[in-house]
Amino acid sequence: MKGWRRPLALALLAGAAALLLAACGGSGVAYPSINFVGNASCPTASASPYDPKPPAVNGDKIVGTAIAEMPHIHVGAGTKVDYNHDPPTSGCHYSQGSPDPAPIAPGSYDKEIAAEYWVHNLEHGYIVVLYNCPTGCTTEFDQLHAWQKSLPPDPAGNGQIPYAKVVVLPWHTMKDHFAVVSWDYYLGMSALDMTQVKAFFDNHVGHSPEGSLTG
């Protein structure tokens, strides 16, 4: 009877360890090396990149593309930041309260908001879904809004964040019709693919410079 217990216990322990690694960003993920970059509007001088760079992911593979990281420092309201990637996946941003808060509140928006506001959301671990629909995309927006509203509270918030960290916004300058971004990661789509949106969210939620307990 005792002979099979040790192998079984070891197998169970190994299985539990594998599940934990998959949930928290397994060591088997092939993370790319990305640069720490800036410009005159957001210089790297006196700034440090987020470590790890790029952030870890959930699961055993990366969904999306890692983008060179810009500094995550605060700039004064009204300052125009020249982001190196469109749409931004990192960079300098505003930090302020009402009446024009940064980060912005979670939700689905039908009016464009300057990136300097919502890049702060990325720093806090949000997933931002962007749409570029010159002729309109009511059906797709409704899909995204319904998904955003259906999400449970942020899983990394330990019960202290009572909502999902998701923002849906229009963004007219990007080349793709739809995109999903998190800190340092980007996924563009020519047409809305909710399977891909959900996969990106699951892969990146909870990982950012200030992700765990920031609203």
Quaternary structure? single chain
Shape, per Cα inertia axes: globular
Strand content: 5-15%
Total beta strands: 6
Helix content: 10-25%
Write the layout of secondary structure elements.
Blueprint: H1 5-24, E1 65-66, E2 107-108, H2 115-123, E3 127-131, H3 138-150, E4 166-170, E5 178-182, E6 185-189, H4 194-204
Parallel strand pairs: 2-4, 3-4
Antiparallel strand pairs: 1-6, 3-5, 5-6
List keywords for this structure.
25% helix; 215 residues; alpha/beta; 6 strands; disordered N terminus; 4 helices
Detailed description of the structure:
With 215 residues, this protein is an alpha/beta fold. The protein is 25% helix and 11% strand. It contains 4 helices and 6 strands. A 6-stranded mixed beta sheet has the order 1-6-5-3-4-2. β5 (178-182) and β6 (185-189) form a beta hairpin. The longest helix is centred in the N-terminal third of the chain and has 20 residues, at 5-24. The radius of gyration is 19 Å and the shape is globular.
